[in-house]
Q: What sequence folds into this?
């Protein structure tokens, strides 16, 4: 029980200290805004409504999440070792293995908040992008039973996009006011506020149609989300990949600085996405075989093409991928604990 309390305390402190940094807020705000702005500059449908916004959201989630994982791990581990904070924590006493695992949990918590915001932004961007709409509005009068007016065509949900983008600005304003009047941490409230703002817009967008009309005034169902919930399992796979990178970055940060850690993680990303090519090796003792065995096969977590033309991804596959991600995290964290075990903390 004592070890659990120590681990949670270190992880919580890591989350708070990490999201208050300007770089963390810039990454999440830029990622959300970049995702929401894609539908405004969409000039091709790629044979499917909303596909560009959806795939761009996944790409932003992966790239920006990787940058956030590396910078957070670098500050939480490498910077604390350099400042001597790690030595003070271990002297409480906290075992070195518990320190590494707790730091990974803290980095994972930051990535989870980031993922929630980016997933919500991806859902909103997909809804806000141009879709073919066939809408029938009915007007009743004394002399006619019903006069039907049919409107059809490609419609962009500008109201949803406007609320989502405005929510980011409102989150910044609220965080700034809290910092000015109550001296609360701007970075913490801005980081969380951006994520919360996207979640609130998700809840509100079901009250109106893509054309901006209130459903309550049109009759019928009062709330229809019109969101592509097929995005969730694919986004969950991206989260699993980010947790693997968090474990790798945490392990590397026990010995390397942030720049070197980022370079290695980017290399692992590139090699991991070519896992099938590495697996086809001339012999079991070749370099390709060793790389295929040690590096995570990220193709298991990058399946955005499955959603093309109405496809779906089952949650059972996500569960199986979760077991594979757990084994990768265990491997990297074990290496990190062994690396940190004999590290001179000065």
A:
């Amino acid at each position: 029980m004592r070890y659990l309390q120590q681990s949670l305390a270190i992880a919580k402190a890591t989350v708070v200290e990490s999201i208050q940094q300007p770089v963390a807020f810039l990454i999440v705000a830029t990622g959300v805004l970049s995702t929401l702005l894609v539908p405004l500059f969409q000039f091709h449908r790629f044979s499917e409504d909303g596909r560009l916004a959806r795939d761009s959201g996944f790409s932003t989630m992966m790239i920006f999440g990787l940058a956030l994982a590396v910078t957070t791990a670098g500050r939480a581990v490498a910077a604390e070792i350099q400042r001597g904070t790690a030595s003070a924590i271990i002297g409480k006493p906290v075992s070195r293995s518990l320190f590494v695992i707790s730091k990974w949990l803290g980095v994972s918590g930051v990535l989870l908040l980031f993922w929630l915001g980016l997933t919500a932004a991806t859902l909103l961007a997909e809804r806000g992008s141009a879709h073919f709409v066939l809408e029938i509005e009915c007007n009743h009068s004394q002399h006619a039973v019903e006069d039907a007016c049919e409107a059809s065509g490609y419609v962009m949900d500008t109201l949803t996009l406007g609320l989502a983008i405005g929510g980011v600005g409102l989150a910044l304003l609220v965080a700034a006011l809290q910092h000015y009047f109550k001296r609360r941490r701007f970075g913490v409230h801005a980081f969380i506020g951006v994520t919360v703002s996207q979640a609130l817009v998700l809840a509100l967008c079901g009250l109106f149609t893509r054309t901006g009309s209130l459903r309550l005034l049109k009759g019928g169902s009062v709330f229809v989300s019109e969101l592509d919930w097929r995005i969730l399992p694919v986004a969950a796979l991206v989260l699993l990949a980010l947790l693997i990178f968090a474990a790798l970055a945490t392990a590397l940060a026990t010995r390397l600085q942030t720049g070197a850690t980022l370079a290695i993680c980017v290399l692992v990303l590139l090699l991991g996405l070519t896992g099938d090519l590495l697996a086809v090796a001339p012999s079991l003792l070749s370099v390709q075989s060793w790389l295929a065995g040690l590096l995570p096969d990220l193709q298991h977590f990058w399946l955005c093409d499955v959603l093309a033309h109405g496809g779906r991804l089952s949650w059972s596959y996500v569960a199986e991928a979760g077991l594979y991600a757990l084994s990768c995290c265990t491997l990297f964290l074990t290496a990190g604990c062994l690396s940190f075990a004999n590290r001179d903390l000065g």
In short: The chain has 13 helices and two strands.
